[in-house]
Amino acid sequence: MPPARAPGGARPASPCGFPPALRRWLPLLAWLPRYSAQWLRMDVIAGLSVALTVLPQALAYAEVAGLPPQYGLYSAFMGCFVYFFLGTSRDVTLGPTAIMSLLVSFYTFHEPAYAVLLAFLSGCIQLAMGFLRLGFLLDFVSCPVIKGFTSAAAVTIGVGQVKNLLGLRDIPRQFFLQVYHIFLRIGDTRVGDAVLGLACMALLLSLKLMRNRTPPARPGMPLGVRLSLGLVWTVTTARNALVVSFAALMAYSFEVTGSQPFVLTGHTAGGLPPVQLPPFSVTTANGTVSFAEMVQGMGAGLAVVPLVGLLESVAVAKAFASQSSYRIDTNQELLAIGEPPAGWASSSL
Questions:
Q1: How much is the pTM?
Q2: Which end of the chain is more exposed for a tag (fewer CB within 10 A), N or C?
Q3: 344: part of which helix (H) or strand (E)?
Q4: CA distances from 94 to 5, 82, 172, 251 (A)
Q5: Is 110 helix (H, G, I), strand (E, B) or coil?
Q6: Rounded mean pLDDT of 320-340?
Q7: Around 282, how many Cα atoms within 13 Å sit in the side-chain half-sphere?
Q8: DSSP secondary structure letters along 113-140
Q9: DSSP letter at 287?
Q10: pLDDT digits (tens, 9 = 90+) for 255-312
Q11: Interior CA angle at 232 toward 231 and 238, to 5°?
Q12: What letter would DSSP give residue 16?
């Protein structure tokens, strides 16, 4: 039955002091008052690990999208701040992905202005779906579809990283052509990149196995043993951040000595872009491309990109939610996912 009404006909506030409607729009208000300081250490390690992993990943996905590397960094952090307030999943971080990068590359002709406008319009479409409470449409996506989608994404991401692992350049972005050219040009493998990549993979796997086999520290153990186990736990939990830092230090060391056996990202523009409206027209050598012409050029991307973005994010959120026995609000996810592209696009050029 619905909660009893307070005098005057108004619904009572929630136990945390916030009205239910406000908690529904800002899920942060529901979990933050119950946050435990004991979780802070784990969250700091997780945040550091994810951040240092996302940095090279965002640069790589910008390359996949055919955009300057700084655009991958812009899109990597903007969504996190918004999702902190609006998201309902404990395990999702918003940012560029392999599939979305491929779609952006296909529909924006490797032009930053088109990419920013596509991100803005996609965010507006997703926001409109959220305000119209159309999240129930995503409930009709079955578990086999979600599993197949996430598996296909894993295969696409894995194959897409092989060329970088081997240091191969100018490999086509299409999946089957990518596989064909990797085998065709396997003899052009750069030894430095391959050794560094395989060493990082072996180190990550070793730290993960060590993490699974390290016993937890117990109060009855000697202080030295507990400190040792705590150090091992911290190192193995933050393994992604440590490996990324190790690889960056290796590349920098070779750069200082004047010998560089690795393929580096190159110069990345510093600073943040000014906050302004996305480009609704573009001036080229052949004249000015109007907003209508830009939209017409992107064509089906205006439908494909927002829908695939929603499906990809919600599928991952549902997968984690089912493992951890909690539920996500699909309508709220539409708002949380729709806000970052619209906001990022307004400050990217």
A1: 0.73
A2: N
A3: helix 330-345
A4: 39, 9, 26, 28
A5: coil
A6: 80
A7: 19
A8: HHHHHHHHHHHHHHHHHHHTTGGGGGGG
A9: E
A10: 888 888 888 877 778 788 877 888 888 887 778 889 999 999 998 888 888 888 888 7
A11: 90
A12: T
